[in-house]
Amino acid sequence: MTVRWTIRLCLLLFLGCLLVNACNKKSGEGNSGPHPLTLPQPAGFPAPQYSFTGNPLTQEGVELGRKLFYDGKLSKDGNFPCASCHQQFAAFATFDHPLSHGFDNQFTLRNSPGLFNMAWNKEMHWDGGINNIEVQPLAPLTAPNEMAENINAVISKLQQDEEYKKMFTAAFGSDTINTQRMLFAITQFVTSLVSANSKYDKVKQGSANFSQTEQNGYTLFQSKCISCHPEPLFTDHSFRNVGLPLDPFIKDYGRMRITNNRTDSLKFKVPSLRNVALTFPYEHDGRFSSITSVLDHYSSGVQNGPTLDPLLKNKIPLTNAEKFYLLEFLKTLTDSSFINDTRFSQP
Amino acid sequence: MKLTHPLHRVHLPKICFGLLFVTAVFSCQKELHFDKVPEKDHNLVLRFKPVVSFDSVPLVLGKTYKNYFKEDYTPTGFKFYIHNFQLENTDSGKIFKLAKDKYYLVDFSDTTTMEIKITIAPYVYNRFSFTIGVDSAQNVGGAQTDALDPAKGMFWNWNTGYIMAKLEGTSPKSPTGRFEYHIGGFSGEENVSKTIPRLFPFPTNLDMKPGKESIVYITCDANAWFFQPWDIKIADNPVIATPGLLATQVAENYGSKGFTIDSVYNEP
Question: Would the ipTM clear 0.95, i.e. be above it?
Answer without folding.
Answer: no
